[in-house]
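Case study B.
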Amino acid sequence: AQKVTQAQTEISVVEKEDVTLDCVYETRDTTYYLFWYKQPPSGELVFLIRRNSFDEQNEISGRYSWNFQKSTSSFNFTITASQVVDSAVYFCALSEAGSTGGGADGLTFGKGTHLIIQP
Amino acid sequence: NAGVTQTPKFQVLKTGQSMTLQCAQDMNHEYMSWYRQDPGMGLRLIHYSVGAGITDQGEVPNGYNVSRSTTEDFPLRLLSAAPSQTSVYFCASSYTFSGNTIYFGEGSWLTVV
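Model:
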């Protein structure tokens, strides 16, 4: 069965510091999808990125970057020059596309990392 | 630009009462699902649907019913609410169930007393 581990329950940094959120996943499928979502204090879930298992190219979007390494089953998320508005809970999630459920059994979420950016 | 719409946003129920959380999407998505979020647990899948007339159970289905009579709507029913169902509920949808971005509603905060 699939599993997502976010070992960092809470991280606190001072504004402008760089911070990396770790995500380690387990899956038996060769085809799968990884996601990051942001949940700000207002509670909604904001989609950040989707990555399929065949695309190991790292991605950068402004101050956000993602490092996908199949060899270590990790999909880490880095915020450069953090800002107070980045304070939120961040979830990593996995969706399998294998033969059993075809991904229909939805996303498996990690338990989230609460990121606190202090001014 | 509604996306995924959930109602109500907040609800307090007494133990044993029934209620329905409504979910509607206007993106013509085939796949819809319900998750619950509990402190320290992340989100867990309750039920899902891969198209109108088709539903199935997720990880934590007990105490909940769903139906999918139209592509747009996917209501979640609590037949006899229990305090253990106090949670935040999220409805989600995507074009298909495999690999597409899943979009979430804004959440429904349910308290059962």
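The first strand of chain A starts at residue 3 and ends at 5. The remaining cases will be described in the next quarterly update.
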